[in-house]
Amino acid sequence: MTTHRSSRPPRAGRLVVLGRGQRARKAGRVWLVGAGPGDPELLTLKALKALQMADVVVHDGLVSDEVLDMAPAKARRISVAKRKSRHSYAQDEINRMLVAFAREGLEVVRLKGGDPFIFGRGGEELEACREAGVECHVVPGVTAALAASASAGAPLTHRGSAQAVTFVTGHAAKGEEPDLDWEALAKANQTVVIYMGLSTAAGIAARLMAAGRAGSTPALIVENASRGDERRIATTLAELAGAAEGLSGPALLVVGEAMALAKAGGAPAAVQPLKVQGVSE
């Protein structure tokens, strides 16, 4: 497969047409597509079909090259990667970009790591398209928590030890610890999955224990879930902060009794190389 570098369009408010006058008479569409956690074989068939008809792919930094290479060679790629304290584009700019390209008559795929609606800000992009009168479709994806749980062999729900699972974010809008219902999260026999929680692991663990969660509660850290360099660290809530030190992510923190079943170690089992009919080599 041929790899194409992502390009940067002009900033919002200065977007230009791509010179496809024959397409401008046709209404474009936006597809909010979940790319899954990284393993290209976890991409859905519907996501693949959307990618294969894309004129423009606006993608996150966490989307793997293997997935990006499933888009047509002619498709323009635009990286809107977000890292802590370093955003190439503000969310409002991304929203306006999607609308602008669709109004040019283009098929626009907004490719997001995991699932668009699980801490992916897909809801904001959907609202922007609706307000602009742009047709928008959502294609769900495998969120990182499901991949992390599966590869570690630790179910998020399990009879007798996890009757509920809750997904929370590890930081608030300005980067500080989130304002969560810590007493509810501290109840036993449930699983709490913390996205984007590496930098706030110490505070999160302290709040959960202060609210009553036992420090001996099993915990799991999964870095680069589903990818070839995946790493799993089995620990406890009391030792969570120490176990998170030195990791750069992306990583998930998982706390709950069912994590006692987790297997620490490296990447998930190898599979045969992905071959999909219709994808150009």
UniProtKB/TrEMBL annotation:
EC number(s) per UniProt?
A: 2.1.1.107
Task: List, for all copies, the residue spans of the domain called Tetrapyrrole methylase.
Answer: 29-241
Which Gene Ontology BP terms does the record give? methylation
Give a GO molecular function annotation for the protein: uroporphyrin-III C-methyltransferase activity
Under InterPro entries, the record lists: 4pyrrol_Mease, 4pyrrol_Methylase_sf, 4pyrrole_Mease_sub1, 4pyrrole_Mease_sub2, CobA/CysG_C, Siro_Cobalamin_biosynth, Uropor_MeTrfase_CS
Matches recorded under Pfam families = TP_methylase
According to UniProt, this protein's pathway is: Porphyrin-containing compound metabolism; siroheme biosynthesis; precorrin-2 from uroporphyrinogen III: step 1/1
Question: Would you say which domain of life the source belongs to?
Answer: Bacteria
Q: Which SUPFAM superfamilies match?
A: Tetrapyrrole methylase
Alphabetized, the UniProt keywords read:
Methyltransferase, Porphyrin biosynthesis, S-adenosyl-L-methionine, Transferase
Instruction: Kindly give the PANTHER family that the UniProt entry links to this protein.
Output: S-ADENOSYL-L-METHIONINE-DEPENDENT UROPORPHYRINOGEN III METHYLTRANSFERASE, CHLOROPLASTIC, SIROHEME SYNTHASE-RELATED
Q: Which family, according to UniProt? A: Belongs to the precorrin methyltransferase family.
Official protein name in the record: uroporphyrinogen-III C-methyltransferase
Q: Which organism is it from?
A: Phenylobacterium terrae
